[in-house]
User: Fold these one by one.
Assistant:
Number 1:
Amino acid sequence: MDSFDLIIFLITVNIGFIFLVIILFGYIITGKIISNYRETRKKKLFGELEDAFLPLIVANDESGVQKTLSTIGVKNLENFIEFISVYLSNIKGDDFDRIINAIYKSPVFKILCDSTASDDLDTRLYSIYCLGLLQKPVCIDNLLNALDDGNFFVRMAAVKAIAEIKCFSALDRVLEALAREKLVTSYKLSETLWSFGEEICEPLLAALKKRDGRIVRIHEEDLLTASMIEIMGYFKFFDAAEEIHAVLKETKVNLIVKSCIYSLGKMVYTDSLHAVEMHLDSRDPEVRVSAVKAILEFRCVEKIDKLKSLLNDSDWNVRYNSAIALYEMSFDFQGYMFSPELAGQEMSMAYRTIVHVLTEKYTTETEAGI
Amino acid sequence: MKMDLQQFLISVLYFYNYLVVFYFIAINIIYILLNFLSFFEIRKYVRENRVVNTGIVFRSNFYIPVSVLMPAYNESQNIVDSVKSMLQLHYPEFEIIVINDGSKDDTAELLKAAYKMTEVSFEPSNSLPCKNVRGIYVSKTHRNLIMIDKQNGGKADALNAGVNYSKYPLFCALDADSVLDNESILKISRAFIEEPDIIAAGGIIRVINGCRIEAGEVVSIDLPGSVLAKFQIIEYLRGFLFGRTGWSAINSMLIISGAFGIFKKKEVVEAGGYRSDTVGEDMELVVRLYNKYRPEKKMKIKFIPDPVCYTEVPETLGVLSRQRNRWQRGLIDSLLLNMNMLFNPRYGAVGLIAMPFFVFFEMLGPVIEFSGYIVFLVSLWLGIVNYKFVLLFTMASISLGIILSVSSILLEELTFKKYSSVSQASWLFLYSVLENFGYKQLNTYFRFRGTIDYILGNKHWGEMTRLGFKKDK
């Protein structure tokens, strides 16, 4: 390339760049104008919809609302769904049920179901999300079909919607879908399982009992077992205590050990005390902390001496939680601090941890006016 | 002999000119690639968040408690408002630890009075090195507010003290003049729950100058009056939306801003905490975390584009020059302390892509660019290069710079749309064009000076003047 060619090339590049800048400017400003216009239109539509919903709440005028929904709702599905999601999250009780029923009986519901197979990604996403909010099991087939959607976000939205609807018969499909996505982190699992609500505990217990069963097998890491156990603990599902106790005795995986101890503590299943207390000496500080917390849940005063010894643990969290447990169990800290055991040991970890917890508790209680 | 020397000098000038052209082409190819990566990454993030309900974290117990660390040195102007803003965070379980780093003003006294703080005796949970702690105070009005009063030792030292007295597994390092969006911690901590391999994450920093703040909360976003601050809005958008997002997409993000970053305490403590002998403690820690953990285990350091932290940017050239000078020195220090990672395949993309980029383009860039301007002018004067070529090349480089700046505004407009009016978008566009005519060159000069200062051994932080939030009310 001689210098003349180079100059021509650079001139062409410059002209191209300048055009690109102009196009970008046009795109940004036009986009801004359009998005502001849409925003204004959305606000107007929100106002209209709110006006339509208010009489329903005040006068229980279901037919009027259905009529309004038929005319307004279908005109702008995306905005309608956004309105519904915002509106529904602010309404509770009978009003919520009335609105749900009005939407269910209006043609909008069928449009929402059909939209789960729309060509437009946003429409699919929004309609699935909205069906989750409406919680009507009749749309479950649409949602199950959406589990096979080509788009990941649609599949995830479908998983969540099925959980919101609490369709337990689809639980296996949901878990399989999650496993297939290779997105089975503890949070995603717990979030999904938790969305099913307290009623999930029974099927979870059944799945846990057949530990060689399908649900457990699809997940190779133990994350699923741990999540299932934690969910049952969270909802204090006492029926599962015995089974979880059995799992605790047989497992060697710290992740599952922690979830078992957490759940048994929440359920206050004192029969598991022996299995739990063995883990106070675990090599994993997180397991030791969970065991200390469970001992506190059990209010097991017989373990006070062990908790006292943990005040000298090498891990701060273990020391701190042991001191908290002792405090909550009304342990006589003052007597202990002046006892021969701690005399002259003001710089020991145990002494300092006690002072820490006492000052922390003192400040909190002063604040609360206790 | 004289002729040979002349020939040699001309050859050197030729070589340097080619080097500058090569540098320009290479850096811009990388920027364009980062731009594309960021575009897809942010689009994915925005889509995913439509179907994720952060509220579930509040209703369930699937959250990780966070300790928020706020080092404060002579922050009397903002500290009470900043803490107030932090106390309004939407998060189920968190503590705020303000570290008064030997302030000479009444930062500590103001806090004690505003939040009724009383001295307590706390046992540190870790023992990272830090200067003498004079006292620990807990608020009687807010049980999750703690103040550590310590001898002055710099920001890194203060953060180490904060880590020592924090009780939760995650800690969030902030600047005392930062204002967090209420849901920032909620959004950023979600990443740690979803991906257990993440050991640190950073959010986006936006410019607070010009915004309206009420009760410690940003209630409306507007453009600042200062020209310099407007340029920095473009710079921050570019740096975060397409710089860090792009690096994060290939798991090679070497910087988490000191103004807003969240870390797993265990990993940071194991790595030895913050180094107090560098002015770039934020970047140095991140690079060191890669250095320590990348060869051994699966780990990620991520940028999350949505959680926002607002920070005040300099509005005078003097403060800006000191800030950029410090950033450059910090960058050089962080890279030189971890040079074993350069071109080292054990560190994956960090060793093979990010480190070479940061060393050759970010660390040496200001020197090459600044000397490039001089060499170009000398070559022009000597008639070694065609003036038409110089002119057109300069135009092309400026136009490409404009395209990259404008594309960051485009990214903002396609996603978060924080600047809502058409006039704001137009102003931003105008400033993204104008910044290429002087502001960028000025920045190169500040960074060049930073490099010289580093070589001369200057380790001063440089005084930063705060205007305070109140003026924006």
Number 2:
Amino acid sequence: MLEVAVRHRFPGFALEAEFGSPGAGVTALFGPSGCGKSTILAAVAGLLRPEAGRVVAGGEVLLDTARGVSVAPERRRCGVVFQDARLFPHLSVASNLRYGLRRAPRGATRDAEGPGFGEVVELLGLGGLLGRRPLGLSGGERQRVALGRALLARPRLLLMDEPLAALDAGRRAEVLPFLARLRDAAGLPILYVTHALDEVDALADRLVLLEAGRVLAAGTVEALAARADLPALARRRDAGAVIGCTVLGQDAARGLTRLGFEGGELVVAQRPGLAVGARLRLRLRARDVAVATEAPRGISMHNILPARLEVVVSAGEAEAMLRLRVGPTALLARVTRDSVGRLGLAPGMAVFALVKSIAFDHAGPG
Amino acid sequence: MPNSIGATARRGDTDAELTAISGAWARMLSAEEWDAVRLSLAVAGRSVLVSLLPAVLVAWALARGRFPGRMLLDAVVHLPLVVPPVVVGWGLLMLFGVRGPIGGPLNDWFGVRLVFTTEGAALATAVMSFPLIVRSVRLGLEGLDPGLEEAARTLGAGWLDRFLTVTLPLMSPGILAGAVTAFAAGLGEFGAVITFASNIPGETQTLPLAIYSATQSPGGEAAAGRLALVSFALALTGLLLAELLGRRLGRWLGRA
């Protein structure tokens, strides 16, 4: 259980944000740079003292300016992973990993029973790096060591400040699976600051959407992704609904994989790695979903889903965002304003959603 | 001012030992000249020992602290660099002389006299080289990413713990560079030493003072030349040693 409320003014910028998080799992603070998300993280860690604020983690008050309570950062037990790793250059990887472990309160070691040194080394694949110095590591390796160091400090809470933002695409892809493993193994509440939607899809359970120092919306990733009225999400090229799926079957003869979701089925080019019954999360990009008022025939697309049009929202000057319901599941489709007029699209209409392709952006367990 | 090298209170024992051990090397210089070399090393060494810790603390305060009077402290620390050394020596005489506000009580209560003693020479040298250490340490500190101390903090390290395990090791190249520079400069400190501690052979007559005395006495050119050569060799050795140590330290810190 985590409660965060922060109010702080900078020259030309005011932050006033409040949100909660029910417990273990990743809460992503998402928004453009300069929206205050890193400031919130610093306030939770205690590295910044906000003008007013209250932070409660696991029933313990870490900050309450109204009552003059502010626990020192070194006693907050918030494991922080910084964008720039911040490994100690004069210590070996092993000593870096043990830095927090050595200083963890003994009580916490016993009652929290966090993963031990060996387990973390195993979890993050650090076995070959232990004797090395941070200078000789790649960016991805450094970030993995930083993850391990934070986790070994027996934190009550993990705070990650854009841990992948300083890495190139290849390194990000290398570290992301480790992040997912850490999330599942740690069983801790994690606050994850990012401006990358694919990281949200792959890791986050809940999303806090920030803009200009305010919380625009908060909720599960699926619920927020399906809202057409959130410009911060809907304007992006990779905007789209996020849906949880189960693998229903592999059709090797036709080279297809069948996926089921609440209210329908999708067929995708075969993904042999997926076992039947596996859960995964897909992002159906709005620009990859088209709409027809009649069932099209003679078309290469596999996925033609009967749907009901719920909402039409203008998105930019020439485009509109449509929210469709397929059973209980919401999809987003981006079409031109001209199409809306030509087809007479209006809320309540029965339409067909045509899904062109499916992005498997780091589809993690849903 | 006692002037010539010949008028020395001899240190027979150490002379004998030194001569026995170093043979030809030792005979290169006279016993009095060796005294000057030894004194220079001792004075410079002590001056660094005395000023290192306060200099590190002052550098820390100047680099990281936000307190009223910070600029004034900064200026006062740098004064010995710009004020004539003789003035620094005179100031020390006023403060630490046997009737001075500090020297008086030291003499009366503890029997400690600094004027005209080796300790006094070390004090004068320490004051002169203090800004050199502060500057060097401060430069090292300002190049140190405060983010590392923040990281240590979130990992549960209190301020002393952070200072000892993160800040101090990472600023050690700056401390080393400052100490070596101060030592090398201390070997050659002239004005403040001669004013405060005078030019007493075997007591306060360091290398530069001995060279000065040699040039002032008839037929002292050869002695001055030998001592100048020693000065040169010491300075060169110091600089090379500093470079070598600096590289070692850099590697140890995971920089090089």
